[in-house]
Amino acid sequence: MRNIARTTDERTLNGSLTPGFPAGHSLASISLDDSSTLPIWQVGAMLSSLVFDWCFRQRLGGTNLSWAFLEEAALPRKSRSLYVIALTAMRLAGTSVAFADQWYVLRRVTSQIWNSPWKKLWATTAHERLRLRTLLDASIAELYGLELPDVEWLLRGCDYPKEMLGDKPFARKIDPKGFWRIHKGRDPELRHTVLTIAAFRDLKEIIAKHGGDRDAAIEILCTMNDGEGWQLPDTLCLADLRLGHDDRATKPQRVHSRLGPRFLPWQLGQSVEESWAECGMHARNILGKEGLKRLQAEPPEGPVYEIPSEPMPLAAERGDGFDRKGQGEFFVGRDKRKDKR
User: Fold this and answer.
1) What is the pLDDT of residues 47-94, one digit of tens each?
2) Which of 32, 56, 153, 272 has its CA at a distance of 20 to 30 angstroms from the CA of residue 114?
3) Is 282 in a helix, a strand, or coil?
4) CA separation (Å) from 257 to 67, 85, 183, 201, 252?
5) Where are the domains of the chain?
6) CA 302 → CA 49, 108, 149, 227, 271, distances in Å?
7) Which of 114, 45, 49, 137 has the alpha carbon at shortest distance from 86?
């Protein structure tokens, strides 16, 4: 997460999960005692949620996101629905082959992704990222124990028309720490905040139908529609959500069709077997042969796809005709390169 942020920005705590790459001093990092895959992604999802950010904004007085504030912040208790929270977070942030080893682990512990190509799970389009971000924030709000009026109050001011939010004299009258700046240039029905309220209402209806079992309801919300999870509505009438401040709010407005495709063509170009074999190949490049063997020695809970026998070449690996002074010289771990020196 970034170290410097204001409570009057769109978001204050902007966090993401990253592989073990170096970073400058202005990018703070947090690690867990439990370094296994699911807890890391669960906590990452919580820290990036609207609810956690709202709580954090209320306490932050300056612009430094110091550990003194973070260590006193509250996270929801563990629950059985957290595995779908972790999967959704990975779909949003794990959109790179650099996370192949963690995808390989997750595939072995959850059946939800067994029949889906690996890269189809990556949220790379604006449509899919908005959908999953909305679904995730609604689920986390429930894990925090919020009710619908709480979420509506937390996101108050987010339903004003874009013309009103673009008027500076009017915007000065709204809560300066509110989330109304998120997607303020869009029509209200296309905003992350407004759609989060819609998803949360749907989640509450599912909870009521299942006798108050919120964990079961969150799992249903994230796995309905043949495992795809909650979908953005075709149309949305703000007045039905007790939102809106103009005549547009009283009429259904198109949502789904205005956000473009959910997937890019290259995400759909591989079969399930081919895509997960590629994931295993990248995982081997990250973990090494011995690390992958240890992982494969654990009892699998899903189908195991054959990994190609040869690892992929390193991007900067020197071939026979490579200039000796090139970046291949930085890879000093192999004897043949030491001999050439």
Assistant:
1) 899 999 998 888 877 777 777 777 778 888 888 888 899 999 999 999
2) 32
3) helix
4) 43, 26, 18, 22, 13
5) 37-267
6) 30, 5, 41, 16, 17
7) 45
**Helix 126-143, helix 214-223: angle, nearest 10:** 170
pTM of the model: 0.84
**By three-state DSSP, how is residue 216 classified?**
helix
Under a CB-based contact definition with an 8 Å cutoff, are residues 53 and 178 in contact? no
Q: What mean pLDDT, rounded, does the chain reach? A: 84
Please, are residues 85 and 139 in contact by the beta-carbon 8 Å criterion?
Answer: yes
- The position carrying tokens 């082959």 is 97
* CB-based contact 5:63 (threshold 8 Å): yes
Sign of CA dihedral 160, 164, 168, 170: negative
Burial (CB < 10 A; 0-12, 13-18, 19+), residue 154, is buried
Q: Is the pLDDT of residue 319 over 70?
A: no
Cα 322 to Cα 75: distance, rounded to the nearest angstrom = 51
Are 89 and 17 in contact by the 8 Å Cβ rule? The answer is yes
Structure tokens at 184: 């303020």
One DSSP character per residue, 163-197 reads: HHHT-HHHHTTS-TTSSTTTTTTS-GGGSHHHHHH
List, for residues 230-259, the tens digit of each pLDDT value: 999 999 999 999 999 999 999 999 999 999
User: Which one-letter amino acid corresponds to residue 135?
Assistant: L
CA neighbor of 135 nearest in space, from 24, 8, 49: 49
Strands (E), 104-176: none
